[in-house]
Amino acid sequence: MSTDTPKQLTEAIAAARVGDRHRAREILSRLLRSDSSNAEYWIWMSAVVDSPKERVYCLESALKVDPTNRSAMRGLVILGAREPSDRELSQAIKVPRRDIDPIQPALQPSKIESVEEQAEPKPKPSTFLPKRGQLVLRFVTTTVIVGGAALLLAGVIYIIFPRIPTGFIGAASTLPPASPTSTETPLPGTPTATPIPAATRIIRTPVSTEFAATPLALLVERTATATPLAGYTPHPSFEAYQAGVDAIDEGDYEQAIFFLDQVIDTHPDWIDAHYLRGKALRLLGRIGSAITSQDQALNQNQEFAPALLERGRALMSRDEDAAQRDLEEAVKLEPGFTEAYEELGTFYQERRLWQRLENRMEVALEAGTRSPRILFLLSDAKLNLGKVEEGLAYAIESSADDPTSLEGYLAVGRAYVEMSINSLDDSYYSQALWPLQTYVAYRPGDYHGWGYLGRAQLGIGEIDEALHSLNISLELNDRYARAYLARGILYTALGRYEDALSDLNNARRFGSETFDLQIATARVQFHTGQYTAALNENLQPAVQESKEITSLRLREMRLAEAYALRALIYETNPEVISDAIRHWRWILDFEHVIPETRALAEQHYNELIGEGPTRTPTSSPTASPSPGPTTTPNPAEITPSPTPGS
Question: What is the CA 329 to chain-centroid distance, rounded?
Fold first, then answer.
């Protein structure tokens, strides 16, 4: 055995524990190719494959290698592939209580003792017993089997994941399954003809960092739907074909090619054999040969969509335009081809072609093709196109359909943060916390998760926690504009204006110009006496862009924020007080204004027209905790707006 083998097994186990089943399968497949007589490899492979059939295959393989392997036997009993022997029942019933409690907390010690008593070896039934006695004996035997099977089911995690400490298993109670309990914050608008229910199916508490070694699949309730292999056509009379398909399912691509070559030698006209061989070649990285195999399949049938999908995947690293054509043709030929839509959507997402991504994913849903990945991609497109309410709704549906998907947690958290930013409604920030905390627990190296978490924490006033999260985000990626923007806003709240301006300039340097960034920068410039820059460089474009918003509510709320900063600046110059009064009046005339900004407008307006008490020192809108200007203004720098509402 290679000296690298123990290290590879450790890597596979680590990947399984963090929920990266694809990575675990890859490593374990390599290990099994090098040594298929290792029962431990088969046991771990059974924990990361997708279907019950595959798990049974892995456990049976482990049992062939080691007929005395208890973990394999118990796993097969739990899966219903084998009948429990008396010995197995007795051993299973005596699983220590600490291993059972996290899964079956209601099972009391007295009940365990009674089950153990029932499990005592019974005399072999005699054929001379009367009929009534046989019925009683049958009842007792059935009770033993059912009781033992229940305890076996309770110990499934202990069996399938023998290396996970029992303390981690207890994390299941921290993440209850999807619940119909209604959320306190109702969902925004519904993007589909059938409204998405306000009672979401993803209300859960976050997974703590100390439990992040436990795969999400063990902490959430999920009904897995097996995805059939695209392009598979059963050929019962030819065993080599099925062996090749099974080898692909198991990740043994060399073996798959070996069997499929035999098929093609005798049946060169089998399109699916060429296609499956090409798939195995692509997964081995033999791109040229993979393309050739798909060409051979398509030469026989140009409308075989699975071959177009696989050729598109193979072409991706060589000719993106040709790859895109193949993917587009695949979904055109097969409107219900989920895998092709997902691949095409990922292609558009990676190239930031948001409008195309939105159009294609909506077409997929209209065709009845739905998957968590398609919903996630559509959510991403909506958010990047500024359709935040729809993006949130699709993110929630994606995560609800597959609560084991980490990208779903990031999508939901991000969508709630964007809802707060876009709508100027801070109540959504608290909804973003639990999915983002769960995400960074499993993906601590992703700067996106830390950046959005920091913004959510800032939004609910957790300043220290927000600074910690944003610092981590920027340590991971010192060009991440969103984290710079959030930290700039945080520094402004702390009165660290020089640091704030530096971060906001970096946000502008590495990102795009947004209303959020313009207002944040104008606020810092107001506090540091840079009035001309605030008015001309940030507030003027912020006002113009806000006027183009079609939503009356959002348009008025954003204009109110910009007008409030303008009015505060005009108040520093006695010559343009009338402009300050006009801006406060415009805010009070709006129907949709943040309460803090309306209160500020009422206070300043009443004082300026002589109807209110002497006001407190000037502060910026939206309840900024910072003091007023720190420098004496230069009246010549402050120019009033030339026309009302400009």
Answer: 29
Q: Which of 220, 227, 283, 223 is CA-nearest to residue 19?
A: 220
Residue 406, Ramachandran bin (φ over 0: left; ψ between -120 and 50: alpha; else beta): alpha
CATH classification of the domain holding 298: 1.25.40.10
Say whether both 142 and 48 belong to one domain: yes
Three-state DSSP at 493 gives: helix
Q: What is the DSSP string of 150-206?
A: HHHHHTHHHHH-TTS-HHHHGGGGGSPPP--PPPSS------SSSPPPSS-S---PP
Residue with tokens 């009246």: 635
Instruction: Give the tokens for residue 447.
Output: 């700067």
Cα separation of 45 and 395, whole Å?
31
pLDDT, one tens digit per residue, over 493-537 is 999 999 999 999 999 999 999 999 999 999 999 999 999 999 999
Please tell me whether the overall predicted TM-score, pTM, comes out greater than 0.90 for this model. Answer: no
Exposure class string for 336-365: b at 16+ Cβ within 10 A, else e:
ebbbbbbbbbebbbeeeebebbbebbbebb
pLDDT band at 32 (very low <50, low <70, confident <90, very high): confident
Answer with the one of 281, 304, 333 that is the final residue of a domain.
333
How many structural domains compose the chain?
A: 3
183 falls within a domain: no
| 382 vs 375: CA distance, rounded Å | 10
What the block records as the tokens of 379 is: 């959510």
Domain that holds residue 40: 5-170
CA dist 52 and 73 (Å) reads 15
Decide: 535 and 566 in contact? Cβ < 8 Å: yes
552 inside domain: yes
Q: How many residues are listed for the chain in this entry?
A: 646
Q: Verify that 154 and 242 share a domain, yes or no.
A: no
Task: Flag whether 367 is in a domain.
Answer: no
